[in-house]
Design a protein that fits this description.
By secondary structure, the chain is an alpha/beta fold. The protein has 10 helices and 14 strands. Helix content is 28%, strand content 18%. The strands form 2 sheets. Strands 9-10-11-8-7-6-5-4-3-12-13-14 form a 12-stranded mixed β-sheet. Strands 1-2 form a two-stranded antiparallel sheet.
Length: 327
C-alpha cells in the first residue's frame, strides 16, 4: 500500500499515454501547439503495462488513462486490454475529448471499461470551435450521445472560462437533464502553455453554483466519497446530476489519493507541483520492479500537503500545459 508523509493512502493513478492532442483548446496551449516530446521519450505500451502492474502490486486499484488525447495513440487498445486482465485493478477509466473514440466504443463496452469522462466546454457549435480551434463539433456530439445511449457511465467535464463559455452552463444542464450523466464544472487552471494570461480566477466554484441557482434553485446536495474532487448536486426533476470541482481553489487537497505519471514517465505527486522523479529512465536501466516501487515510496514520503504548498516549488507553473502533465 502506498501512503504519503501526511498519512494519505494513494490508490488512484492518473496515467498519461501521450502528450499529443488533436485539438488546440485555447486554455490548454497556443494555437501552434507546444513542443511535443519525441516518440522515443514516451513510455512504450510495454513500459506502460509493466508500470501499471508494478503500481497495482503497491495498492493502486484505480487507473485513469489520460493524455493529451489518449486515442491519438493507435496502440492504446493494447494497453487497455492488458489492464482489464490485471488482478487487483478494480476501476479503469478514460478521459477523452471524444473526437477519436468512435471506432473503439464497442470494444470498450465488451472489455467492461464503462467510466468515460468527456471534456466538453461548450454545447454551442460556434463556441466549441472557437475554444478548440477545430471543426469537430458533430463528431464529439455524435460520440457523446452514443456513449450515453450505450450505457457508459459518462461524466462531462466543462471548464468555466470567463467571456468564453459561461453562457453555456445553464443550456448544458437543460440539454442533459433527461440523461443519466454527470455534468461537472471545473474552475479554470493556469496550465495553458503560456497561451494566455491568468492573473486571477473569475469563475470560482461558488460563483458557478450561484449562477446555476438563478435558473435551477431547487436542487439537493448529494453524498460524495471522502476522496472526491467534486461537490455533487441533483436538480429536482432532472435525471442528470451536476458537480463542481474547485480545481484552482483546491479545497480537496486534504483527502487527495492521487498520483500522476506523465507520458514521459515523470512522477507528479501534486498537479501544482513539479515532477519529482522519472520512471522511464529507471525502467530502461533497471529490470527490477523493486527499484520503481522504491522510487515511488521515496517521493511520496516528501509530498507537499496542499496544492498551494506544491506550487511554491517552482515559479513557472503557469507556463506548463495541461496536455504535458497528464490532463
Amino acid at each position: 500500500m502506498l501512503v504519503d508523509n501526511h498519512n494519505r493512502t494513494i490508490n488512484y493513478l492518473r496515467l498519461a499515454v501521450t502528450d499529443r492532442c488533436n485539438l488546440r483548446c485555447n486554455y490548454c496551449m497556443p494555437s501552434e501547439g507546444i513542443n511535443f516530446e519525441k516518440n522515443d521519450k514516451l513510455l512504450t505500451i510495454e513500459e506502460l503495462s509493466r508500470l501499471s502492474k508494478i503500481v497495482v502490486e503497491q495498492g493502486i486499484d484505480k487507473i485513469r488513462i489520460t493524455g493529451g488525447e489518449p486515442f491519438v495513440r493507435k496502440d492504446l487498445m493494447v494497453l487497455l486490454r492488458y489492464l482489464t486482465e490485471l488482478d487487483g485493478l478494480d476501476d479503469i477509466s478514460i478521459t477523452t475529448n471524444a473526437t477519436l473514440i468512435g471506432p473503439y466504443i464497442s470494444e470498450l463496452k465488451t472489455l467492461g471499461i464503462n467510466n468515460i469522462n468527456v471534456s466538453l466546454d461548450a454545447i454551442d457549435r460556434e463556441t466549441f470551435e472557437r475554444i478548440t480551434r477545430r471543426d469537430l463539433y458533430d463528431t464529439v456530439h455524435n460520440n457523446l450521445i452514443r456513449l450515453i445511449t450505450e450505457g457508459f457511465n459518462v461524466r462531462i467535464n466543462f471548464i468555466a472560462l470567463e467571456n468564453q463559455n459561461t453562457q453555456d452552463i445553464i443550456p448544458i444542464l437543460e440539454l442533459m437533464k433527461h440523461y443519466p450523466v454527470s455534468v461537472r464544472f471545473l474552475e479554470e487552471m493556469p496550465f495553458n502553455g503560456g497561451s494566455r494570461s491568468f492573473d486571477a480566477l473569475s469563475w470560482s466554484y461558488k460563483k458557478i453554483l450561484e449562477h446555476i441557482k438563478t435558473e435551477f434553485p431547487d436542487f439537493e446536495k448529494l453524498p460524495s466519497p471522502p476522496t472526491s474532487t467534486s461537490i455533487n448536486y441533483k436538480i429536482k426533476g432532472h435525471t442528470s446530476t451536476f458537480g463542481l470541482i474547485p480545481s484552482f481553489t483546491r479545497t480537496f487537497c486534504g483527502s487527495c489519493n492521487r498520483l500522476r505519471i506523465t507520458a514521459t514517465g515523470d512522477v507528479i505527486t501534486c498537479l501544482y507541483g513539479k515532477p519529482v522523479t522519472n520512471l522511464r529512465d529507471l525502467m530502461r536501466s533497471d529490470n527490477e520492479n523493486e527499484s520503481v516501487q522504491s522510487a515511488l515510496v521515496r517521493v511520496l514520503n516528501k509530498r507537499a500537503k496542499t496544492g498551494f504548498e506544491a506550487q511554491k516549488q517552482h515559479s513557472s507553473v503557469f507556463q506548463s500545459s495541461m496536455t504535458s502533465i497528464g490532463g
